[in-house]
Please model this.
Amino acid sequence: MSSPFVVLPIIFQLFLAVLLMFCWTQKNLQKLISVVGSLVAVIISVVLFAAVWKEGIYTTQAGNWVAPFGITFVADTFSTLMVLLTTLAGLAVSVFSVGSVRNARIKFGYFPIYHFLLMGLNGAFLAGDIFNLYVWFEIIIISSFVLITIGGEKAQLEGAVKYVTMNLLASVVFLTAIAILYGLTGSLNMADLSLKVAEIENRGLVNVTAILFLVGFGIKSAVFPLYFWLPASYHTPPPAISAIFGGLLTKVGVYALIRVFTLIFIPDEFMINLISGMAAITILSGGIGALIQNNLRKIFSYLIICHIGFMIAGLGIYTETALIGSVFYLTHDIIVKTTLFMVAGLIFKIKGTYSLRLLGGFYKEYPKLSLLMSISLFSLVGIPPLSGFWAKLFLIEGGLSVGNYWLVGFILLGSFLTLFIIAKVWAGVFWKDSIHIPVKMQVKYFHELKPLKRQAMVGSIIFLSVLSLSIGFGAEYVIQVASKVAESLMNPQDYIHAVLGQTN
Amino acid sequence: MLLAVLSGFFVALGLPLIIKVFKGPNTLWVSLFPLSLFIYFISKLPAIKDGETLSSSWAWVPSLGIGLDFYLDGLSLLFTLLITGIGTLVFVYTSSYLKGHIYLDRFYAYLSLFMASMLGLVLADNIITLFIFWELTSISSFFLIGFNNDNEASRKSALTALSITGLGGFFLLTGMVTLGYVAQEYQISALATLSEEIQANALYPLILVMVFVAAFTKSAQFPFHFWLPGAMKAPTPVSTYLHSATMVKAGIYLLARFTPILGNHEWWNGPLIIVGSITMVYAAIHAIFRLDLKAILAYSTISALGILVFLIGLGTDEALLAAGVFILVHALYKATLFLVTGIIDHETGTRDVSKLSGLNKVMLPVGIAAILAAISNAGIPASFGFIGKDLIYEATLHLGNMGYVLTGLAVITNVCLLFAGFLAGIKPFIGPLPPAFSKLHLPPATMWVPPLILASLGMVFGLFPMVVDTALIKPIVSSMTLGTPTFELKIWHGFNIVLLLSLLTIGSGIALYFILKPSEVLFAKATRFEKLSPESAVNQFAKGFVSFSSKWTNFFQNGYLRYYLITILSFLSLLLGYRLFYGVEIYVDTSTLSDITLYEAVIVLIMAAAIFFTVFSKSRLTAVASMGVVGYCFCLIFLFYSAPDLAMTQFSIDTLTVILFVLVLYNLPKYLTLSDTRDRIRDGLLSLIFGALISILTLEVMNETVTKDITSYYAENAYILGKGKNVVNVILVDFRGFDTMVEITVLAIAALGVFSLLKLRLKSIEKE
Model:
């Protein structure tokens, strides 16, 4: 079905960003616009999701140039699910920002750029044109780079330089890939590419091109051995920023990998083995990396890598069951990782440090907050029936069904390492008695904040924790969505028809 | 039944709140909750006795076939009664034991959470649901073991216990998913009929390994046993409840439950017999050298669990009967001994068995309970333990030649266990009372009544076995064998070899008790071999793993951007090279390429020279200027191939870049040489390889014939539909106008970024 409604999640964020730029100096007005706007964005994405769920794929052609000649936007279940999750996490981080981002940053455009970032994310999920996808990646890189550097201190800038260099490298590889693919097919429309790539006789060349896409998106999604930018930068920016990064940035890469390798390049045996192998080592690297860290945010950063491995493993197994696992894990991970980085931020605001060795005493001093934080921590571990558990069922069954036992082994190893690490964090931050931590002058502590700000920080964590609880207990509904996504990924005819029309 | 299981979770959530409202020193009333559950389950006894089974189900995740399906048969009834019955007593006991503790509310909450999980585990009729509750017991036990959270040793043992049982949990998950995948069935009660197909499947060994590891970790079998003595850091009610009566028996329950499905196969029986017998002997010998009462009990529990695994491994009807009886026997006397130990610890402040004696004089009822438990443990005639022990010998003896060896092992184990039981149950209470303890007095009744009840039950069942025979034991056995059992529990079997063995055991045990006096010296001697124990092996492995982890992590994440880039590019080149040379027939069709003109050759030469200068120049200005030259050469190439507007764009961008560079050059520090020749050669080689690969790829792509319908569409329609004569412009602003708009946005964001980088300096007064 064709409807301009598809681009509304993008345009609305653009509108918000521009509106916010007009309120450059009025920080309170900016906060209000951002929160209310994010709420409206959630409503828009819910409506879009419901519409697509009920009526099938929505498309729109920019400038009304028929596909494959113009730029197509496609809203299928997968993309609307991602947009929905983005806006939900976006709303939470927006509220969290109200409480935690300092005024100087707001005066220098924090909120407009934040909404530009959300626009980029939504754009990437809705793009039906491979070059357009590249352009959204540019938006994401530049706005995330600016967000890291705003009010940058030295550590932050060092992280930012590494971040932007490697991500630009990823873009260059991606752009090269697009150029070569255009040379092979003469097309940029993803649905059209799906048909044209299948027709190419020189499979060798297609396979080489696929490698370029794999590495380009692989850098973005932080898989082994391409993940270096992530641990180098995620622990440096202010909490709100690292929350949205932790929740969403790598997931765009994963989304792109899953989309491209189910729609355009159907992996051959070598590719399957390569992706599975990368997934396995990614799980290992992330898990053992987190094992030896002391900084709370570094632990969570490495755990992101570990769990990216789970999602990629689903792609490496390449069955419908395994893809259900990947999509379910993606859903869970966006919500929970965002929460975890907010939790880390809140812990920092309270104690003034991220160091596991120094932290302690939460259990005694903040019993209610401890309970709240335990929800996201143990959801991440996947203690059944919390949200991280269900996806693993599908991944394991998928792995068994194709006889990929060692990958299943790595998934279990990753789960075990996560369990151990989170239990260690729990024992360290919550159980251990607190020791005296010197008060830092440059930190504005939680108890010094106005009640509204405190409520904003805690409230946003509650919001996402409730979401992750409902993912866990209402697993049935998420599974239904994930199954539909996986089914349409494995059978892309509907997607192609929706974009190109029945005639092709 | 659903409500019975779930109520624990609601209670766990609500308790802290309720306790806060009813702020009273006495929390005895909380015990009404497990008591009501106990009454509920015991009311089902008549139905189960008549051979019925009860079930209830509630679809939860129907698309996975997972539901909260519960199923009550003889086996689960035994466990539910243990869980709720001993649970009630533990709740009562706790109300005094932890009276006034600031976290008493949390403790009760964790305890209820645990009880509910355990009930769910033994009632689950769905293998995934079973796993879910299994994990919940691990987690709630983590919170209970670490209850004294300010104590480092306690935190550490909680972590160890969670790691071992959590590891087992993941094995169970895999095992259950595999089983479900093989059988296409998740319902436990339905799986038994598929037993043959499952055992014929190639994945059967995998399922077995997974289930075994899960059961062995949870039920503390060798070599995973060491978490259990560590877990004794928990408050005594926890040790009683989780680590002797219920949770550690979850592994046994799992094996018993899966006997009809996976059992009766040599791959099932063999490993269980071996691991069970190693565990029972190993732990029994360890138990007799300990001095800490709790450690003695921990090791004797491990040994008892070993006996159970061993019996299930034997798999004969007699052995299963013995297992069913022994579960009950053991739960009764071991829980008693733990509760008594808690009282001793609470009152005297020590658990060192060599320092304790004569306590009968100050706390007689406690002593009676302990001595009764020790008698049942010893298997002295007329106690329930006697019946249990008889059945064990009977089961081992009927196995032919192999049976004699196994019977021998069982005798050794039982002798040691008897000794350990006497040490824990009798030694502290008889003999002279040390003066330091003379002022002690009897603890409140809520503490000594529960152990006394349990110990007395052990005697009652022993004297009148018919009380439990048809009501409990028969249904248990029939749920493991799926047949109708034809035995009768008897107190007297006549004079036979079994009786002789029993008497031999009792005699040597008591003799041992008088010979071997526990002491520090002996303990030190016995622990000399600690270095060889599985625990230190695991610790060594963990240390090695951590050092491997930091080596691996620091090797890749070494902090240098240049190495990151090298790794990424090498990885990309490797893959590209492999796929290019092993999948593509490389040839260049020169006939389709246009001839090289003189201009082009000259431009390429200039470019090469400029790149050379850029790389090797010692001055930054030269490098920037040379880069500009490379850019201009590109413009010229665009120009030659009739793209003047691209050339113009490129030209202005390059000019701007050079100008900007020159402007900031002024502010930059001196040009430093940080790389040596080797680095440069390495980087140069990598660049050449990568460049060459991309060039080859481009050349190969040019060989392909491409349908140009999109390009020609643009050319044809630019003027007609787009109203513009310049095709490139029409593409940029119309056909693909959206891209251009977004790219403009990129520039806007970049501008904002530059602005804030230049202007925003966070003052130290403004806080983060």
User: Anything to note?
Assistant: Chain A has a mean pLDDT of 90. Chain A touches chain B through 115 residues (CB under 8 Å). Chain A has one domain: 4-503. The longest helix of chain A spans residues 154-185.
